[in-house]
Amino acid sequence: MAVQLLPISALYILLQLPSMILYAAYSAGLSRNAAGDYYSDSLYFCFWVILFTPFVSAVSLPELKTKCRNLILFWRSKLTVGPQILMMTRLKVVQAAAVLSTIQ
Hints:
Blueprint: H1 2-28, H2 36-59, H3 62-72, H4 93-103
């Protein structure tokens, strides 16, 4: 369960922490002119969290990861064709007589 929560929490921290820090700084008295463009861009990044959450969740599922890898890399088959050695031996006289008697 922790393996699934770590990527999701990292996504939220990476995309929403800058806007939260700037909002706290603006509330504390920082001028709105300081990092104003960055603050508006960081608010825009908060919407991307909703888009990226399913993809981050899918990364933490090992079964889904192997299914997607097999689906994407379908042309790489693991079956290889190699040379085979065929044994060519003659039938012994006794075996040939038994074969002939069963045919007749």
